[in-house]
Write a structure and sequence with these properties.
This protein is an alpha/beta fold. It has a single domain, classed as TIM Barrel (Alpha-Beta Barrel). Helix content is 39%, strand content 12%. It has eleven helices and ten strands. The chain has helices spanning 28-43, 59-68, 97-111, 130-142, 156-169, 192-199, 234-237, 242-257, 262-270, 286-293, 302-312; strands spanning 3-5, 12-14, 16-19, 48-50, 77-82, 116-121, 146-152, 176-178, 202-203, 279-281. An eight-stranded parallel β-sheet has the order 9-8-7-6-5-4-3-10, with helices on one face. 39% of the residues are buried.
């Protein structure tokens, strides 16, 4: 395993992390597979395990907490998130001080730990002042319930506004952001990566395989594989357009040229930028995780960057005046 610093922070995280967003814990057989994936991840040096209180209605946190008890706590980097509804009450969502304080206690209970290494604001809350949210998070650091905090899917201007509040109030600093990032969604290259670089924030992207579009299992002119996510989840099915699948075919050719598969190629592409601290992958089966780990040994030559940019018609946004 290879490890990178979380931005300018001293903590180091494995380049490949294991996330719980799509972990299916609905029955014992699926829990057994998920437990095998976690064991395999730990045995291969993965130290970063990501979750959220909203995943599977809290079941994902409880499952991960049970499995993490098998390993020394000091060797783990555990994270969770707060924002989405965790109940039917009027205050059971958002980033109010009340919801944050109640959610962290429930997450710690679910995950059977005294503290979380990383704690994310799952989304931006326009209905709560930044001062309230950031003061609550900073207080959690003082209380020892979290070590570092960050945000997920916040716009650059929102992060910069948060930075001004942090400086003004003398709060513990933000440490990390968790955006979506893959070859089909490169919005963070326009501004967010530069902002994070300037502020020393780690970047730990989720969905590096674009909901499965970049696994290579979905091919143009072929039926959707039985049991795959696209058979029951509209989010991935909506991505299976002819235009996208044509791009997948070209990417598969590039991966073949480098002697690897599309999923491995795609993860290695995410990791090509040193500002990326870790990529959060999902694995419903140990074999998928084993394949993801191969990305650590793949280096993508610079010439492929130009080919990929051309394929996706990507050019970093810059507004020129005059």
């Amino acid at each position: 395993m290879k490890y990178r610093r979380l931005g300018k922070q001293g903590i180091r995280v494995s380049e490949i992390a294991l996330g719980s967003w799509m972990t299916d814990v609905s029955d014992q057989s699926k829990q057994d597979l998920a437990a095998q994936s976690i064991q395999l991840a730990y045995e291969n040096g993965v130290n970063f395990f990501d979750c959220a209180d909203a995943y599977s209605g809290g079941a994902a946190e409880r499952f991960l907490g049970k499995e993490m008890k098998k390993f020394p706590r000091k060797e783990l980097v555990l994270s969770s998130k707060v924002f989405f509804p965790t109940g039917k009450g009027v205050n059971d969502q958002g980033l109010s001080r009340k919801h944050i304080m109640e959610s962290i206690d429930q997450s710690l209970k679910n995950m059977q730990t005294d503290y979380l290494d990383l704690y994310f604001c799952h989304r931006f809350d326009p209905n709560t002042p930044l001062e309230e949210t950031l003061t609550a998070l900073s207080d959690l650091v003082d209380q020892g319930k979290i070590l570092y905090y960050g945000v997920s899917e916040w716009r650059p201007v929102q992060i910069l506004e948060a930075q001004l509040v942090i400086q003004k109030l003398g709060l513990h600093p933000m440490a990390v952001v968790q955006p979506q990032y893959n070859m089909f969604d490169r919005y963070i290259e326009n501004e967010l990566m530069d902002v994070c670089g300037k502020l020393g924030l780690g970047i730990v992207p989720f969905s590096p395989l674009s909901q499965g579009l970049l696994t290579g299992k979905y091919r143009k002119g072929q039926p959707i594989p039985a049991g795959s996510r696209a058979t029951y989840q509209g989010q991935i099915k909506s991505l299976l357009t002819d235009e996208n699948l044509d791009k997948v075919e070209e990417l598969i050719k590039m991966a073949d040229e480098l002697g690897t598969d599309l999923a491995t190629f795609s993860l290695a592409w995410d990791l090509r930028d040193p500002r990326i601290s870790s990529v959060i992958t999902g694995a419903s089966k140990p074999q998928q995780l084993q394949n993801n780990l191969k990305a650590l040994d793949v280096t993508i030559p610079e010439e492929y960057d130009k080919r990929i940019d051309k394929l996706f018609h990507f050019k970093k946004f810059e507004r020129k005046i005059g």
